[in-house]
Amino acid sequence: MSAPIIAIDAMGGDFGPRNIVQASLACLSATPSLHLILVGQAPLIEELIARHSGVDRSRLRIVNASEVIAMDERPSQALRGKPDSSMRVALDLVASGQAQACVSAGNTGALMALSRFVLKTLPGIDRPAMVAAIPTQRGYCQLLDLGANVDCSAENLYQFAVMGSVAAEALGVQRPKVALLNVGTEDIKGNQQVKLAASLLQAAPGLNYTGFVEGDGLYRGEADVVVCDGFVGNIVLKSSEGLASMIAARIETLFRQNLLSRTVGALAMPLLKRLQADLAPARHNGASFLGLQGIVVKSHGSASVQGFQSAIQRALIEIQENLPQRLHGRLGELL
């Protein structure tokens, strides 16, 4: 297999290139086979790289882009009005075969619109879906859609289930259990779209569909892939991250209240730090756009250096697993 090449939108996100350049250099150092293309305002990127010593420039390329898509910019404006944006140029590198994946922390709506326009969807897929790993009691669950499609038909949910199953297989899960997120596990529960999607999934050959799952079942690890529309999925994701941060803050406050609690906290802190690291949003940062004829990974706009590294690692795994081609083959069987 040829060396993996990832195009990085260096100007996206809340912090611009500062964290992105640092994360990119850290990934280059950690993965000797990796090649990166940093896309954005070249003088600024070069200035940030110059602050670091020992950078292997043979595996790092800078491509200039004169425009930047703002985080609050309309997708239509980004699509029509900024042909030389860092996001568009990074996606063009994937479309032309100069890179195998694109990673961006920029405007989600713009990234989805540009990805569909530049890379196109796989045959049989109406809409790409965003998927990310959610920690559970048994490991991880692939949750989709996370916000790309707030209104979905039963057919959309069916396609998401197929793509999520293939993505879980690529991550090493044997015969992934697929479930629909619902307000109850009984067949009579749910809205019309969910009920219709359940009927389609029950008839799908080769798909390990296990039925409905509720929100608490998601975290118990009752399924390897959980499917919902983007409206619900985004709320679940953001609520999960907020809850994890709130619990960590509450525990720290409790352990500082008095001498006894500080003593107990000192004894328990190593275990709590491990738990906090395991559940930290940064570790699971990076949502894939499944269903495209290319690999695109969306990082949180506010991602830390560690968080953006996780997004790059997700793209690297999908390159190594040849995910779009695997999806294309399985979609032909299941759709």
From TrEMBL:
<dbReference type="InterPro" id="IPR003664">
    <property type="entry name" value="FA_synthesis"/>
</dbReference>
<keyword id="KW-0594">Phospholipid biosynthesis</keyword>
<protein>
    <recommendedName>
        <fullName>Phosphate acyltransferase</fullName>
        <ecNumber>2.3.1.274</ecNumber>
    </recommendedName>
</protein>
<keyword id="KW-1208">Phospholipid metabolism</keyword>
<keyword id="KW-0443">Lipid metabolism</keyword>
<dbReference type="InterPro" id="IPR012281">
    <property type="entry name" value="Phospholipid_synth_PlsX-like"/>
</dbReference>
<keyword id="KW-0963">Cytoplasm</keyword>
<keyword id="KW-0012">Acyltransferase</keyword>
<comment type="similarity">
    <text>Belongs to the PlsX family.</text>
</comment>
<dbReference type="GO" id="GO:0016746">
    <property type="term" value="F:acyltransferase activity"/>
</dbReference>
<comment type="function">
    <text>Catalyzes the reversible formation of acyl-phosphate (acyl-PO(4)) from acyl-[acyl-carrier-protein] (acyl-ACP). This enzyme utilizes acyl-ACP as fatty acyl donor, but not acyl-CoA.</text>
</comment>
<comment type="pathway">
    <text>Lipid metabolism; phospholipid metabolism.</text>
</comment>
<keyword id="KW-0444">Lipid biosynthesis</keyword>
<comment type="subunit">
    <text>Homodimer. Probably interacts with PlsY.</text>
</comment>
<dbReference type="Pfam" id="PF02504">
    <property type="entry name" value="FA_synthesis"/>
</dbReference>
<keyword id="KW-0808">Transferase</keyword>
